[in-house]
Amino acid sequence: MKRILVVCSGNTCRSPLAAALLTRALQAAGRGDIAVESAGTGAWDGAPASEGSYLVALEHGLDLSAHRARMLDAALVESADLILTMGRPHLGRVRELGGAGRAHLFGEFAGQTGYGAEVDDPYGGELDDYRATLRTLGGMVPGVVARITGASAQ
Question: What is the pTM of this model?
Fold first, then answer.
């Protein structure tokens, strides 16, 4: 089974949302052979998804209730076939841990360029900030899935 790892800072906001959206899209594309996991460069192991991410996920039919944060480490990097990060600092950390050839910014992998390739952290913001993050990720997911599956983005 192919493994994709999505990385952000605390693994409570962006990466759990991205992993849930990506999992749903890959399953819809008939790619049940790809597992999507997440981790954070500064995660507190075992922490649940943030309340904002949990609530906006529910609004979109996604359940983050079982999510528990994990700290990014060399073993997680080693075990992943593809690593997608929310920002450039996360990309740098993944590269330090040996993932250089398999790591990309989530947005760049989806076809975005420049600042638009990074996903802003909604942590500590209003619910609308989390909704904006989910919209941003949702807009990127089709490009990521298309690149993974070799299909054209719709």
Answer: 0.96
